[in-house]
Amino acid sequence: MWYVNYFHIQILIIELLFCWRLQKRKFFWLRLIPAAVVFCLLPLVTPVTFFAPFFQIGWFTLGFLFYLVLSAGVLLLCFRMTAKQLIFYCCVAHTVQHMVHCLGWMISQGLHLTGAWDQAVQLAAMIVITALAWLLLRRRFRGSETADIKSTVLVVFAAISTLVVYFISYWTTMRETSTVGVQFFDFTTCALLLMILLDLFRFREAEREQLIMLRLLRQEQEQHRMSRAAVEVINRKCHDLKHQISALRHMSSEEQERSIGQLEKAVMIYDSFPKSGNDDLDIILAEESLQAEKLGVRLHCIADGARLSFMGTEDLYSLMGNALDNAIEGAAGEESPAKRIVTLNISAQGSLLSVHVENPCARAPIFADGLPVTTKSDKDYHGYGVRSMRYIAEKYGGAMTSGWEDGVFLLDIVFPLK
Q: DSSP secondary-structure letter at 350?
């Protein structure tokens, strides 16, 4: 019975290790602990072995697959993940666990170990193989990247390969003679399968990076268009000032006073540009203020920009530019001009730096994976901004959340203060 328990516990541990940095569901520990306990104790109420008739069709047993599917249920209960993610991680975990089994079997048979020594070898093989697999794959399993497994080819290949390895391994066990040589070949096959999965995952990453570059280029083009529009606003203001100054010479005192008041109001936007203590952030706020003014949106800002000095210029432009662009665009769609207000607050809250942005939003947006889903038809180029913002937040050890409440869209980003 210990072998039954050991197999499915190995599977669950490996899966949790690889999935740990995925987004967790609410009440994560309240979900994980009872689910893991029930999963680990389940063999106590199932037939004596995996090979009992309840799990067996002819010579082929469904016991291992049964527990692999149950472990997938534990992951789905505790983590926010897609079906493709779930299949991929379960297949990777099964492959690693099978390598553990093969290595432990070879050592035990080669040294003629039994009982407690055999179990100790299994445990050592579990630690060594899982650690090596994690060291090999950890750079491919960062939180934001693991959320982007979309390749159907990758997932289908992983699933078929897992079934083939399982079928052939069990065929060898039941119909042929299992030797150290056979187990070594099995172990090598699983290692090669892991490398292939890694290469396919890397290929998916290359596609993703190419798409990122295209989106960044699109974003730069959009930024250039906005900057050009801002310059046009300035030129128009200067043109109006020139004519108004010329007209002042021919006005009466009362008309001059009224016109001067209009001039003061016209230049007030330039004088009211926020001074945050961060030159890069000041430039961003100046551009966004001009864009907001053009769209009839008021930008209210209280920003301790000096606190953002730890962030690279490119990341700061991407983070704050995307946040304010989305907020201004959302506020511009508000029917009532009085409600077209975007609020930005950057301040220290204890040991955290808080970045809070809110804007009016009449309709509650649809959220997926904690992020609002773009309503634009060109989803390949839109909707990436919020994902890049979350990536930047996580890059600096922070976190990003978004929500909707009483007609207001809320965006919160927190960073640890060092």
A: T
